[in-house]
Design a protein that fits this description.
Elements: H1 8-16, E1 18-23, E2 30-37, E3 41-44, E4 50-53, E5 57-61, E6 73-75, E7 82-89, E8 98-105
Antiparallel strand pairs: 1-2, 1-6, 2-5, 3-4, 5-8, 6-7, 7-8
Length: 107
């Protein structure tokens, strides 16, 4: 079923994002236009409550990196490398909804 939100994640990534190098544990790194935030951000949990996320985060369209999992890494272009702690759907009903990944700096 079509949703009014379909396509919005792509628009947000294009407007607010930049290329991030995604490095899955299995190899085959690639650049993905997505949104990386190093400073605390506000998000919404599964129950619709506002939460403050203190860890660095990476928002990526779920259709561009459906295999994202704990232990994968990203290089957002700030000279650092971050490892994914967890990845959760953003809660949007859109087919191109973001995954929200909590990160920690490894290099």
């Amino acid at each position: 079923m079509m949703s009014i939100f379909d396509g919005m994640a792509g628009v947000l990534s294009d407007m607010l994002g930049s290329p991030v190098t995604y490095m899955p544990r299995g190899g085959g790194s690639r650049q993905i236009g997505s949104i990386f935030r190093r400073h605390p951000t506000e998000d919404v949990d599964r129950d619709g409550h506002a939460v403050l996320v203190m860890a660095p985060t990476w928002r990526v369209r779920s259709d561009l990196a459906p295999e994202v999992q704990r232990g994968d890494r990203i290089a957002p272009g700030d000279g650092r490398i971050y490892e994914i702690l967890n990845a959760q759907p953003s809660g949007s009903p859109a087919v191109d909804a973001h995954l929200v990944c909590e990160l920690y700096e490894v290099e």
